[in-house]
Design a protein that fits this description.
By secondary structure, this protein is of the alpha+beta class. The chain has helices spanning 2-19, 63-66, 68-79, 90-100, 142-154, 414-422, 442-458, 471-479, 496-503, 531-538, 559-570, and strands at 30-33, 36-39, 56-57, 61-62, 128-135, 158-163, 168-176, 179-182, 202-208, 235-237, 243-244, 254-262, 268-278, 282-283, 290-300, 305-308, 312-317, 320-326, 336-340, 356-362, 368-369, 381-388. The protein is rod-shaped.
Length: 581
């Protein structure tokens, strides 16, 4: 009869429990630990859950085999509201305990993986900490055990029971009808403490302080900051390697680049191209014509959090490429420009204090590129400025405003006459007249040579007045070794050979680097001993009158032709690149 009454009492308790709502269970969701998914309903956590079950505990154990106490405490930490199960779980708690040295490591299995839970104090873990424990005989009546648990719960403690003769630990959810409901983390999870009756040997209890400092989860956000990406051009060519650069941000272990392409209907094809584990600056592969947007993503591989930069949008033009100008210690505007493939274009002139510009050279191959150079490459490229630090660049100090009525804008020499005037190298002969077909005298040639040299060496081409008018120039020319003595007739017109021989010595050799292969004796009508003319050919100042490079040394030279020579000496961008047939 006693057995029947006892059995009916248990049935009544089970029925009562089934009618009660699950205690403080959270809405089910998921989160990740070490890349593995787990449920955020802490009431279902087991020590052998796949997210942390294989995690080492000590040297010889795992969470699945020996992690019941660690898991029980973690469950109560979330049950109390001290921690959020979306960011906290038994694996995270195990990691913290191990980092603090609270879990033993030993080659002796009986001494390995022991948890010193008494060290989880209000100092080391202010939000949830150990208070005390009580022991009793396994023969203690269940009713007495439940009474003790109820007293602790009513006093605001969170309780774990030692069961199976202290071989297992289970957290208490609450007491009900003379029993206690459990969140058993074991594989054979039990729901009631009475199922362990006769093996219960003690209680461990903890306190929660929801306003306490969190010392377990990182105090700083694990998510990296969004990278700040350097401003891209709004337009590129399909021959360009687009370079993307950004500043490093804290907590980022690597960076990814994502490129979206705009569809014809205005929508975006996301991740048209992507690049993982990139380093700044990063050159992307060439893109076909179209409209694109790009973002750089900073990623923390420790927890796979990330942040994205703002999108930048740009257009890629068909049959175009970008030329980038590296001023190499100077300054230049524009710094880059979009040009058509297989085209010629005018180059900018860079500036640099106390240095003379010698021309633009390809970064790869080191070849001179001038205004008349047809693009050899179908890909974007960088041009690098070359400088002579012993000289000064020629600067256009005047503005040509249709000063010469006898210089037609359609004439071949128009750009040379206007540039020579702007550089301050040549002026008119009569009011509003340049006289392009007039020959040039010895005095005028020596004056031009002296002016060129002084401008190059000092940046200032002015001379004092003298009598006769050319004396200041001729004296300077002799002192600089441009000429050794004055010609017998300073007013006599010069031939092309006589003019070139004087002009070749106007600039130092460093200002006239060789860019053309013109072997001695290869100019049909120039003796190989005429070094000055060969130097001007090799520098691209002269090129001859036909494909063979015929110079016509004995022919007169006109002021229009002189202007073209002077401009090519002053501006390396206008020099001529050629090869003789």
């Amino acid at each position: 009869m006693k057995q029947k009454r006892a059995l009916s009492g248990v049935l009544a308790l089970v029925l009562a429990l089934s009618l009660l709502p699950a205690p403080l269970a959270r809405a089910a969701g998921t989160a990740t630990y070490n890349g593995k998914t787990y449920s955020t309903d802490y009431t279902t956590w087991r020590q052998g859950d796949s997210a942390w079950g294989n995690t080492a505990l000590g040297d010889l154990h795992t969470m699945a085999g020996s992690g019941c106490l660690v898991t029980s405490i973690a469950i109560l930490m979330c049950h109390s509201g001290a921690y959020d199960p979306s960011t906290f779980n038994p694996g995270v708690f195990r990691d913290w305990l191990d980092s603090k040295g609270y879990i033993s490591h030993s080659s002796d299995r009986s001494k390995d993986a022991l948890l010193s839970f008494g060290r989880i104090t209000s100092t080391s873990s202010p939000r949830f900490y150990f208070v005390n424990q009580t022991f009793f005989s396994v023969s203690t009546p269940l009713a007495d055990v439940v009474t003790k648990i109820n007293d602790l719960l009513n006093s605001g403690y969170y309780v774990i029971a030692r069961v199976k003769n202290s071989g297992h630990f289970v957290p208490i959810a609450r007491t009900v009808g003379g029993d206690a409901q459990l969140y058993d983390p074991g594989a054979a999870s039990k729901k009631l403490l009475s199922e362990y009756d006769g093996t219960i040997g003690g209680l461990i209890y903890f306190k929660a302080n929801l306003s306490g400092k969190d010392t377990i989860l990182p105090s700083s956000p694990a998510k990296p900051a969004a990278p700040q990406v350097g401003k891209l051009s709004s337009v590129y060519g399909d021959g360009d390697l687009i370079s993307v650069s950004w500043s490093p941000v804290s907590l980022a272990t690597h960076y990814n680049i994502y490129v979206d392409r705009k569809n014809s209907d205005g929508s975006w094809q996301e991740n048209y191209r992507y690049y993982f584990y990139t380093k700044s600056p990063y050159s992307m592969e060439r893109l076909p014509a179209g409209t694109y947007r790009i973002k750089v993503q900073s990623t923390n591989a420790n927890n796979w959090s990330y942040a994205n930069s703002a999108y930048q949008t740009f257009t890629v033009k068909e049959n175009h490429l970008t030329i980038t100008y590296n001023a190499n210690g100077g300054s230049v505007s524009p710094g880059a420009e979009l040009v058509s493939k297989n085209s010629t274009y005018d180059l900018p002139t860079p500036t640099r204090k106390n240095a003379a510009f010698l021309g633009w050279y390809t970064a790869v191959g080191k070849e001179l590129v001038t205004n008349g150079t047809k693009l050899k490459s179908t890909y974007g490229q960088t041009l690098v400025a070359k400088w002579d630090t012993s000289g000064h660049s020629f600067v256009k100090s005047k503005t040509y405003q249709n000063n010469f009525k006898d210089v037609s804008s359609r004439a071949w020499y128009y750009p040379y006459v206007t540039a020579a005037y702007s550089y301050g190298l040549m002026d008119g002969i009569e009011t509003n007249k340049f006289k392009p077909d007039k020959q040039i005298s010895a005095a005028q040639t020596i004056t031009l040579a002296a002016r060129l040299r002084k401008l190059y060496l000092t940046g200032n081409g002015t001379f004092a007045n003298s009598s006769p008018w050319y004396k200041a120039y001729s004296d300077y020319a002799i002192s600089q070794g441009i000429i050794s003595s004055l010609p017998s007739d300073m007013n006599a017109p010069l031939t092309r050979q006589e003019f070139a021989s004087i002009l070749a010595k106007a600039l130092p050799s460093s200002a006239l680097p060789s860019v053309n292969d013109v072997p001695d004796g290869s100019i049909p009508d120039v003796y190989k001993s005429d070094k000055g003319i060969y130097q001007l050919y090799r520098a691209g100042v002269l090129s001859g009158n036909d494909d063979a490079g015929t110079f016509r040394p004995n022919a007169p030279i006109t002021r229009a032709e002189v202007a073209s020579v002077l401009v090519r000496m002053a501006d390396p961008n206008t020099r001529i690149l050629f090869s003789l047939d």
